[in-house]
Design a protein that fits this description.
The chain is an alpha/beta fold. The chain is built from eleven helices and eleven strands.
Length: 250
């Protein structure tokens, strides 16, 4: 098996003749944190949507674990072990933290819609649910309804529900967006912990988070790759500085 868990060749997406993404050759090394950054409109979210098959590819190919997944459906991608946080983290607001994670765990068992099953038959999921709750720092909120959680803790719950699928690769779309300083530190520490046993690809605007967490950075601008490398190299690239200074980070 190659060093790269995920790679694309000539990935292109056109909308009525406009190329939102063009000729993107992305290579994500197994067991690393890889950040996808760029100014607004650079095509980052479109790339995520192409990788997870929420958008069809106009041209190019996507390989996951050396297998061509270009024609796969979103559910197939998740089943193969590549999960985007929102794919399964539509958190139920009036369910408790534990109930939300338990629903996610039921998906793994193929019983996600068996809400009529007896409480006893689901008790076996409690131990794993509580492990995940502890892993994301939500133990004291186990029996709190999701709707009552602060925003940063909701993000932690979303990550926990994603981890319930036991993905090999995690795609995080702006995991620290809208968070205060304390929550950013908490989510960053969580991402670092999760990355010990998984590969992570993330879109992130907060460059201090990117600098702290990322092994490799790919910079997109106007739908194509401007440069790739470690933060120290990428941040000094004159073209990167110009792309950011010209449009702002937002």
């Amino acid at each position: 098996m190659s060093d790269f868990i995920l790679r694309t060749e000539g990935l292109t997406k056109e909308f009525r003749g406009f190329a939102a993404v063009r000729d993107v050759d992305l290579q994500v090394r197994r067991g690393t944190i890889h950040a996808l950054i760029g100014p607004n409109g650079a095509g980052k979210t479109t790339v995520f949507n192409l990788l997870t098959k929420f958008l069809p590819v106009t041209a190019g190919r996507i390989f996951y674990n050396d297998r061509d997944i270009t024609g796969d459906r979103p559910a197939d991608i998740a089943r193969r072990g590549m999960v985007r946080s929102f794919q399964i983290s539509a958190v139920f607001p009036h369910f408790t933290v534990r109930e939300n994670i338990r629903v996610a765990l039921q998906r793994v068992l193929g019983t996600s819609f068996h809400f009529w099953r007896s409480e006893r038959s689901l008790e076996g999921l409690h131990a794993r649910a509580d492990e995940l709750i502890e892993a994301v720092g939500l133990t004291e909120f186990t029996n709190v309804a999701a709707v009552e959680l602060a925003y940063g803790r909701k993000r932690a719950l979303e990550i926990a529900t994603t981890l319930a699928l036991d993905p090999e690769m995690l795609l995080l779309d702006e995991p620290t967006s809208g968070l205060g300083h304390e929550d950013i530190a908490r989510i960053s520490a969580l991402i670092k912990e999760v990355s010990k046993t998984r590969t992570i690809l993330m879109v992130e605007h907060n460059l201090s988070v990117v600098a702290e967490l990322s092994d490799t950075i790919t910079v997109l601008t106007r739908g194509h790759i401007l440069t790739q490398g470690r933060y120290e190299e990428v941040s000094k690239n004159p073209e990167v500085i110009e792309a950011y200074m010209g449009t702002g980070h937002g």
